[in-house]
Fold this sequence. Notes:
The chain is an alpha+beta fold. It has one domain (25-136). 29% of the residues lie in helices and 37% in strands. The chain is built from four helices and seven strands; from the N terminus they run ββαβαβααβββ. The strands form two sheets. A five-stranded mixed β-sheet has the order 3-4-7-6-5. A two-stranded antiparallel sheet has the order 1-2. The protein is globular and about 60 Å long.
Amino acid sequence: MRTIGFSYFKKTGGLKMKYIHVYSRKQAIEDGVLVDVSEMAKEVGIMIPVAVTKRLWEEVITPDPNAIGQSINGRLWDALFLLHIEIKRSKFHITSLPFTFSYQCVFVMGEKDHRLFQLKAVLSNGDDLKPVFTIMLPDED
């Protein structure tokens, strides 16, 4: 995440941009804004770094204690595996980043409550300009 400031210089008659604040993906992971799930993503077959938002982690990936048979690892595997399938199934050609995938997962939320979640995975440039995925809820950015 980068914030760019603009300045107009009269001498040159042009617009010059400079970063006034940079919030890196690494810092977001250290701050807990993002949760790095790259190791499990590799097990699923996604070979680039993957993180999920804190909100997705807390509201969806972390199961309710009353949800029998649910675990963080199981839910995370499902979210990553379904993304992997969506990537393979879509047969798209990415021409520019960021690129957004939308897909769905069903999770047991309580004793007899199943919910369908729409998830959004954004493929974008990471801190080193190499591709990374960030998975989130649809209203997050």
